[in-house]
Amino acid sequence: MTIQQGFLEYSHVSSDLDDCRTPRWSRQFLRNLSLLALLSLVVSFAVPSRVVAARSGDYDGDGKTDYAVWRPSIGVWYIIPSSNPTTFMTQQWGMQGDIPVPGDYDGDGKTDYAVWRPSNGYWYIIPSSNPTTFMVQQWGMQGDIPVPGDYDGDGKTDFAVWRPSNGTWYVIPSSNPTNVMVRQWGMQGDIPVPGDYDGDGKTDLAVYRPSSATWFILNSSSSYTTRNSYQWGAANGDIPVPGDYDGDGRTDLAVYRPSNASWYILDSITNYTTSQSHQWGAANGDIPVPGDYDGTGTVTPSSRRRSCHHRHLLFHRLRLPLPLRLALLAGGNR
Question: Which of 49, 98, 176, 288 lies at a CB distance of 3.0 to 4.6 Å from 94, suitable for a disulfide?
Fold first, then answer.
């Protein structure tokens, strides 16, 4: 999804490729779904691949991001595996109102199908290592934002939510599920952007504040006792798209600017002292979808284009009130 001109764009593949009208499911989707929970998609590509092997959408385990969509109206996943792009993968998992939260929950190096249900706070997962045995976990409540990541560094995706009302993170570490982590970091209006910013192999707590374009990071390498803040981006307009763009195993600070379709990246390899910029996409229309599509270990800037004439992908625009424009962002996985 992406923000532009006060709107959130939610992307999906549609069977009605020639119909550009807003579908019925999108109107119902907005009524029933906690809008803030959509922010969970920002973590799609924020964590370097060595932290959570399949966090970037690697459904076939070949080390590359696969093209994937989830269709809310029927709860079906459609995947083009990079290892065999002529053989599509489809899986029904989830229902209308759910939020896709794919990740490597079983630690086998492949992305698992997973959804989080805001209405009851349950996580439903099909582990790729044993797809006949489902994983179900209650964690979170309506209004929370799911922020799955590898917070304990064991190679598995952990159940985690961020609560905007009090800025608190609630994490169940997969290595020790009874030792729940609860930490306050951030405030209402912030955007959660977890990632491995210090390169210790664990997901750090981090938020992006749209009002000042400032990143606030709590480092896991110090047991969350040290913090960093960086001003990077333009206030109330840029979209945070963190990821490992320089291949050093640390999450870089990055934003996508819809007004000129440019990517601005602050490199972790130089301790955030140097930057790079790339123009990629069409202004005020494209959706940023970064990922490691070539398997090099670095995130590649890429975009998807909203067009009613495109024969493969169709994006529907959902209208949101202006205050939510400051809180919603692109993401990703999925």
Answer: 98
Q: What is the pLDDT of residues 241-285, one digit of tens each?
A: 999 989 899 999 999 999 999 999 999 999 999 999 999 888 887
CA–CA separation, 284 and 280 (whole Å): 12
* SS3 of residue 70 by DSSP: strand
Q: Which helix (H) or strand (E) holds 27?
A: helix 24-32
Q: Which amino acid is at 148?
A: P
- Please list, in sequence order, all residues whose beta carbon lies within 8 angstroms of the beta carbon of residue 327, skipping any fewer than 6 positions away: 36, 39, 164, 189, 191, 210
Lookup: tokens for 286: 């494209």
Q: What is the pLDDT of residue 304?
A: 57
Contact 80, 68 (CB under 8 A): yes
Give CA separation, 177 vs 40, 56, 108, 158, 266, in Å: 21, 24, 19, 9, 35
Whether residue 64 contacts residue 85, with contact meaning beta carbons closer than 8 Å, is answered with no
- 155-181 pLDDT tens trace: 999 999 999 999 999 999 999 999 999
Q: How many CB atoms lie within 10 A of CB 24?
A: 9
Which residues, other chains included, contact 198 with Cβ-Cβ below 8 Å and sequence gap of 6+? 204, 217, 219, 220, 221, 250
The sign one gets for the Cα dihedral 163, 169, 174, 180 is negative
According to DSSP, the residues that pair with 149 across neighbouring strands are 158
